[in-house]
Specification:
The protein has 13 helices and seven strands. The chain is of the alpha+beta class.
């Protein structure tokens, strides 16, 4: 039998195609794995949109001039008749960089990659700006994410005050632009712009997420109820929220289970303020309840096959990965 040799890149592609769909999942993962040129390109085009290039030039002119002067010294040392001719060469380089930056961004990006020194200066300048509070909602989303990890058909939780609606209709709203991923919870979802990417958490981290605000486990960090469901996506560390999140394409969510928190009518929980409940999606009658959030999640996952006709409205989701 002929041995098939697979190189590292081919293996990565096989894994990507096995775990993520080509239209939404793979582009999402690739967004988090951008290389240096893609990242600097993203920052430059963001700076153009924010009209920040002139400020960069003013603030960094001395650096640009010194950079051009070093180029002239390295390439043309001793080739000038006088200082005036040398100064003209320096100014030509400076003017060319300015022209590329203002009128031909791709050429400017190519200029940057000719020198690690120039790349480092430009990248740090715009990256530093993008992380400032005044640019919180316009900066490229990748800036705030790190440590991407693919998850395949995992049980996830999404907290919301509209959990029952999500259980009935699926994730109808999300963030459509990858650059807006860092703010999906406060942006397009609430503005109802349409389907897109949403964020969730691994089911086994639900307790930490629900009460992750440091108030002695008294006040929910996010919505007052949630949905438990399965989806594939990319788990990342969110620097701003200081937590791990799973980004997934909303319509791919399936097996969506509504879980609420209400006063129990059972004598077993007499005296408890509220308990977590798994309900019949058709009539909202309680099927299982417990004071412990983890206990309810574990029960729903363990008994999913037996009760799915009663607790799930959309078993396969509206989109299959």
């Amino acid at each position: 039998m002929k041995k098939i040799i697979i190189n590292e890149n081919q293996l990565k592609n096989i894994i990507l195609n096995e775990y993520l769909d080509k239209n939404y999942g793979i582009p999402l993962y690739q967004y988090f794995k951008m290389d240096e040129k893609q990242r600097i390109s993203s920052l430059i085009y963001w700076a153009i949109d924010e009209e920040l290039l002139e400020d960069f030039w003013s603030n960094e002119y001395d650096f640009i001039y010194d950079y051009a002067n070093d180029i002239v010294n390295e390439k043309y040392d001793g080739d000038f008749e006088d200082e005036e001719e040398k100064e003209n060469y320096i100014n030509d380089i400076v003017e060319e960089l300015y022209s590329d930056m203002m009128y031909s961004p791709q050429d400017f990006i190519n200029d940057i990659f000719k020198s690690y020194r120039l790349y480092n200066e430009v990248y740090n300048y715009f990256y530093g700006l993008a992380t400032q509070p005044q640019y919180t909602y316009s900066a490229p989303g990748w800036i705030f994410f790190s440590q991407p990890r693919i998850v395949k058909n995992e049980w996830l939780v999404h907290f919301s005050d509209n959990a029952f609606q999500i259980a009935e209709q699926g994730f109808a709203y999300g963030t459509q632009e990858l650059d807006r991923l860092a703010y999906s919870g406060a942006g397009d979802i609430h503005n109802k712009f349409g389907e897109g990417y949403d964020f969730a958490y691994l089911a086994d981290s639900a307790m930490d997420v629900m009460y992750g605000n440091g108030n002695n486990y008294s006040t929910p960090k996010y919505g007052s109820e949630f949905v438990l469901f399965r989806a594939s996506g990319v788990e990342v560390w969110h620097d701003g929220d200081e937590e791990r999140q799973v980004i997934f394409y909303g319509p791919s969510a399936k097996s969506i289970i509504y879980i609420r928190k209400e006063q129990s009518k059972s004598p077993q929980y007499y005296g408890d303020d509220e308990v977590w409940q798994v309900c019949d999606i058709h009539n909202r009658r309680v099927i299982f309840e417990d004071v412990e959030l983890d206990a309810v999640i574990n029960w729903a996952i363990k008994n999913y096959e037996q009760y799915k006709k009663r607790i799930v409205s959309l078993d396969n989701g509206k989109f299959t990965i």
